[in-house]
TrEMBL record:
Protein name as it appears in the record: GNAT family N-acetyltransferase
Alphabetical list of PROSITE patterns matching this protein: GNAT
Upper classification of the organism: Bacteria, Bacillati, Actinomycetota, Actinomycetes, Mycobacteriales
Domain N-acetyltransferase: 16-190
Keywords tagged on the record: Acyltransferase, Transferase
EC number: 2.3.-.-
One Pfam family cited in the UniProt record for this chain: Acetyltransf_3
Length: 221
């Protein structure tokens, strides 16, 4: 089937749902992700992208409205399903850079509340978005990270994505320094194996709802 940009509609998993995010949701999103640790992981251009005034509501709304590329990307809010935190908005992720001619798309613009790092949130979000992209006819889905960000790269590799290479001096970080970008992808032919691996990771969690963890505890990728 030819690749077609999918409509922005809810995607529901066992542990989370991906709901279309709108500018009206940004105050709630600010509560979840306007933290130095989130930006230190590469979101928003890196550590320097977090400023003292970024925690201010008006500043965050103006910045996030531009950074998340509403209209150009399918932008989702990540919400917990079930348990004590049912319905809580704990992050955002997007499917974008649609190129129907080459059947390629990009999963990115992702940030989560540190209290759900290392939980089911990321693997299930990727399961839902990869599935949507391949069901919509795309043959290659890119996912990338700052080449210096070991934690993010480890998380991508655990998904089963393949490293294509490092794009040197690719884009500026918020501090003005140039970053190298590690580019990974999953192809349609690789998706069944990647999907099985993601299901296995989620099955191993036993179906218990996501609970917030101490944000100061170390977490694995």
């Amino acid at each position: 089937m030819p690749a077609v940009r999918p409509p922005v509609a809810p995607l529901r998993g066992r542990y989370i749902s991906l709901e279309p995010l709108s500018p009206a949701d940004l105050p709630e999103l600010r509560t979840a992700i306007a933290h130095p640790r989130v930006f230190a992981g590469g979101f928003g251009g890196g550590s320097a992208g977090y400023r003292a005034d970024r925690a201010d509501r008006a500043d965050f709304l103006a910045w996030a409205g531009e950074y998340l590329q509403f209209g150009r990307c399918n932008v989702y809010g990540v919400r917990i399903r079930g348990g004590a935190h049912d319905g809580a908005l704990v992050g955002t992720t997007s499917l974008g850079d649609f190129d129907e001619a080459t059947e390629s798309a990009h999963i990115g613009w992702t940030a989560y509340d540190p209290r759900v790092w290392g939980s089911a949130v990321n693997p299930e979000a990727k399961l839902l978005l990869f599935g949507l992209a391949f069901e919509s006819g795309f043959g290659r889905v890119k996912i990338q990270a700052d080449a210096a960000n070991v934690r993010s790269r480890s998380a991508i590799e655990r998904l089963g994505a393949v490293l294509e290479g490092v794009h040197r001096r690719d884009k500026r970080r918020a501090d003005g320094a140039w970053r190298d970008t590690a580019i990974y992808s999953v192809l349609r032919t690789e998706w069944p194996a990647v999907r099985s691996g993601l299901h296995a990771r989620l099955d191993a969690l036993g179906g218990e709802p996501i609970c917030y963890r101490n944000a100061d505890e170390p977490v694995s990728a």
